[in-house]
Structures are given as structure tokens and as C-alpha cells.
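Work package 3, deliverable 3.1, input record:
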Amino acid sequence: MDCSHVFEFKFKRLIVVFTLFSAFLLVSLGANAQVDTAHHAENTHEETAKEKKFDIGKFALHHISDSHSWHVIGDTYIGLPVMLYANGKLVTFNSADFNHDDDAKVVVEKNGQRFVKMHEKIYLASASANEHGQYVELDEKHHAKNARPLDLSLTKNACTLLLSVIVLLAVFLNVAKGYRKNKGKSPKGLQSWMEPIILFVRDDIAKPNLGHKYERFMPYLLTVFFFIWFNNMLGLVPFLPGGANLTGNIAVTMVLALATFFITVFNGNKYYWKHIFMPDVPWWMYIVMVPVELFGIFTKPIALMIRLFANITAGHILVLSLICLVFVFNSLYIAPVSIAFAVFIGAIELLVAFIQAFIFTILSALFIGMAVEEHH
Amino acid sequence: MELLVPEFGLVILQTIAFLLLMFLLAKFAWKPVLAAIKEREQSIDDALNKAELAKQEMARLTSQNEELMKQARADRDEILKEAKILKDSIVNEAKTSAQTEGAKLIEKARIEIENQKKAALAELKGQVSTLSLDIAERVLRSQLDDKAKQQDLVNNLLKDVELN
């Protein structure tokens, strides 16, 4: 029994290694061949240079950034509601009014105010178009200089945010209902899926870091854990309800990190502040220690913010880049390789989705634990 | 890098959504769920403790029972022993009393026999003397004629008499 299990595991590992190796081989061969053809093409056909070169970076960045419309497939987009607060007035319209223009060429006029969209950002339109037909003024880096209204639109990320809130509420209210229904009995259904994870957060994240005060912080830790985890998973779904890069958005991770920061600061006891302002070192060391400790208060949440953002964004870019190999090499034969890689990275991303949620939560618990720790 | 600049609108939305989510989940999910889990853990612990106590109680009762059985057995043996002793003593007593009674009866019988014998002897003696006198009278009557014969007769009679 045991032996067969081990064998199976080794066998699977072998398959993975072999697949990776063959994939690598294929990619390097394909790349070489492609370089040759590209070289060949350059020499013979001058018109290929005129073809729009596929920019993988631009493509990936476009996909991981927020958007005012939701790309379904091909040229199909779902228009999302735009809500702007400009010059003391709330303006709402459908993002489809921009006709999927993203270069500030289409002006939407509403409530006597004119808006254009450029690189998924909405600006107050200039009175007249520039030489490229854009209703914005550009600086030397081709960035718009126009003023921006306060944009509270339900963008792709905002919609995903709402969706994830609804999903989380649905799941955990159902779980709570299970606890009411099977009071004192063994968990059933969804409840038994979630209970081990709730217990994991309680016993392996909260209790070791927070000690006996863990109960106060459980709601925050559980919410933040499941919010990050569900959204990480939702981000991995490539089609409609998923696909948004919510937890890889710096605004979202910033809010989460700020929550940890405020909880840490407001719950910090006298020992915590004494450790920062009057550490147990000779007084002349204070010149160095106090600024370092003060700096540390801010670097911890900033690290949380960057870590989650970077990990999730990197995962999305990786998957997108692997899929884009087909377009980079302009060959269908590369598809099996890129799909094999994408599946592999996707599997890793599933793990990362959980691990990042875990890391964010355990570090939050650690920072809060450091702030509320009693010294004897 | 545009990616690194947080969009202010999304910050506001995220703050509202996250706080709302946390509030709702804390009130309607985490609180009851954690309480239920804790309660269940407590009840499981309690049940296990109770089972342990019941086991100990059971063991105690079993040993007590054994003790009682042992005691009962000992008591029974004691009672049996006592009964046996009693029985033996009763039997012995009966035996001795029967023996003494028998001996008494025998003694009585012997005395009676002796008395009877004595009485009989006395009567016999009386009769013998009467008879002897009769005989003597008759002999004397018949024998007085012949002196020798008289002598023989007396001698023979006396011999007979002495046999008694």
C-alpha cells in the first residue's frame, strides 16, 4: 500500500520532469528555428517589417491592468457602468459609449461635461483634438496631462470585487447556516470543506502568533485570508466571471496592507511602543535605532502590499507570456508547448494562490502579535 | 510604472467593500462559526473526559464486584465450615448421648436382670429349701428304715443342692 503510493508519487514526478525537459527542448529548438526564419524573412521580405510587431509586454500589461470594459472573446466587450465625480457633480454612463476607444479619440458628453478614455483612464477632454485626433494634451512621454475626475466606476476589478464579496458572503453564510443546522454534530457539505481551512487559520496562523488574544483578531484574519484566496483563485479563471487581476492590483493590496497597519498601530501596547522609542540599548544608539524602528512600522505593511501584488501579477504575466509564445513565434506548432507550460504554471499558481493568502495572513498575524505581545 | 500607482477610485471601493465584507462576515459567519467550533470541541473534550471517567468508574465497580464476590465466597465457606462443625458436634453429641443412654439402659437392664435373678434365686432357694424339706421329710420317712440308704440319700441330695 505504502510502497505503491511512493511509486506513484515518484512516477508522477518523473512525468513532470520529463514533460518539462521535452518542453524545454522543443522551445529551444523552436526558438532557433524561428530565429532562422526571422533572419531569413528579414533578408528577403522588406514588407514584414511593416507588419505590426507583436508586443508581448504591452499585451500582458494590458491584460493584468484594470479595464472599464470586460473583454469576453474576440471583439465582444461588456460595457461596464462608469461613475465619475467631476466638478462637484456625479456623472454616470455606460463605458460602451467610448466605443472601446482607448486613445482619447472618442469624447463622451454627459451633464455638460466631456470625457475621454486613454489607457483605461478617464480624463476631462480637451476642447479640441491634437494632431493625432486625441482630445488630450500629451507630455513628452506620451502621457495625458489633462485633469482626471474621481473615478468610482465599476471597472473590471471593481466588478470582480463585488462578485467576490457576494461569493464570500454566499459561501460563508451557508457555512454558518450549516453550523446552526448541525449544531454539535459533524460538519456536512460546504461546511466540511471550509472547516479545515478555518481551523488552519485559527490553529496554525492565529494561535501561534497571537497567543491567547487571538480571538479578537480572528474575524480580520479569516476575512483577509479568504478574500485573498478566493480572489487569487478567481483571477486564475481565464473566462468571464474570473480573469481580473484583483489581488494583483496595487490599490487592493494597499488597502489590505493598510488594514493590517492600522490594526497593528491601534492595538500596539506600551511594550510595543517602548520597543520602538526606547529600545533596550545604550542611549547613544537611539540615534540609529529609533529611526530604524520607526521606519520598520511602515516597511512591514509596504512589504505585505508589494509581495501580494508582485506575486499575483507575476503569475498572470507568466501565464499570459507563455500563451503568447504562439504569437511571438507566429507558429501554431508552438501551441502544445505553450499550453503545457501554461498548465504547469497554472498548477503552480493554484498553489501560489493559497500560499500568498497564507503568507499575507500569517505575516499580518505576526505583526499584530508583535504589537499586542505582553512582556514578563 | 503605471501598475505601481494605486487607482484612487479602486482604493475607495476596495475599502468600502472590504470593511463591509468583514463586518458582515464577522457578524453573521465568523462569530457563530467559531463559537460553534469551540462549543463542539468543548463537547468532544467533555465527552472524552466523561468516557474516561466512566471507564474508571467501571473498573472500580468491577474490582468492587470482585471484592464482593470474594467476600461472599469467604462468607459462604465460613458458614459451611461452621455448619459442618455444628453438624459434627450435634452428631457427636447425639452419639455420646445415645451411647450413655444405651449404657444406662443396659445398666438398668443388667440391674433388672440381676434383681430378677436375685429374686429368682431367692425364690428358688425358698423352693429348694421347701423341696429339700419335702425330700428330706420323704427320705426321712422312707429311709429311716435303712440307715445306709439314709446316708446315701442324704449325700446325693446334698450333692445336687450344692450344684445350685
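The two ends of chain B are 169 Å apart (CA to CA).
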